[in-house]
Design brief:
Number of helices: 7
Strand content: 15-25%
Number of strands: 9
Radius of gyration: 22 Å
Structural class: alpha+beta
Shape: elongated
Length: 263
């Protein structure tokens, strides 16, 4: 009961806090309900498994119950997503915009910029998910625990990103590996600014995030590169010294447009 109440307080509070962004509210409402269904199902399954048991140490939770719990949560999420409906949102992430600046470069000059962006939330979350996977593995079985173990390990390890701005555009890769690589080429960039981003308020969480009109890599709160794409959507990356990266990208994107038009 305490778990379910805590779930309601947590996701209810987050949904209320993110009311300026209906798209984020929709995601949080769906996730909160799905977590409640998953938790409730597993708690009831454990109680049923222990009913009239002479020796509780011999009681195990069948793996089918875990599969059914995740299935019920997924079904709820799909139905809740439809019930919540859609809401119009602004095309850009909320927050004060800054004037799009340029980094002065000669016609024969080129430049590159790179920084490591880290997260304090994702390693802790990954460790918690990994611990939950170990608990499920020892109590239920390793097959239903596998998704939690894989997700937790990835979150705990891939929590830093190298952000690069150069003639290839914006490139984001894990700080400890060259793959997976996310690239936004200069041809797709209309203008770049920098703005403060709050993960929960603006995107409903950390990591790779997407919502109507915006997507990006959000690892922490604070300054972020905010690229307005030629499609009208926005791509953001939270990183220090975003102003320098934005100025360089504007210069390189403008040069790319002149080159492609023969100007």
């Amino acid at each position: 009961m305490g778990l379910l109440l805590a779930d309601g307080v947590l996701f209810g509070g987050l949904t209320y806090w993110t009311r300026p962004n209906p798209g984020v509210q929709r995601v949080l409402a769906v996730i909160g309900g799905a977590v409640a269904v998953l938790t409730g199902w597993l708690v009831v399954a454990v109680l049923v498994a222990n009913t009239d048991a002479d020796d509780t140490s011999s009681v195990t939770l069948p793996g089918t119950q875990a599969a059914l719990a995740f299935g019920a949560a997924a079904l709820y999420a799909a139905v809740a997503w439809l019930i919540c409906g859609k809401a119009e949102e602004p095309e850009t992430v909320s927050g004060p915009s800054t004037e799009a600046s340029r980094l002065p470069l000669g016609d024969s000059e080129t430049a590159g910029w790179t920084r490591i962006a880290g997260s304090q939330v994702l390693p802790v979350t990954g460790a918690l998910v990994l611990t939950a996977g170990l608990v499920v593995g020892f109590t239920t079985g390793w097959v239903p625990a596998l998704p939690l173990l894989v997700t937790g390990a990835l979150m705990a390890l891939l929590t830093g990103a190298r952000v690069t701005a150069d003639r290839r555009g914006i490139t984001v890769t894990p700080s400890i590996a060259p793959w997976p690589r996310l690239n936004v080429p200069l041809q797709r960039i209309a203008e770049v600014t920098h703005r403060p981003i709050h993960p929960l308020r603006d995107f409903g969480g950390w990591g790779y995030r997407a919502r109507p009109g915006a997507s990006g890599i959000v690892l922490r709160s604070g300054d972020a590169i905010a690229a307005r794409l030629t499609t009208g959507s926005e791509f953001v990356v939270t990183v220090d010294d975003a102003a320098t990266a934005a100025a360089l990208l504007n210069t390189l994107a403008e040069r790319e447009r002149r080159t492609s038009t023969g100007g």
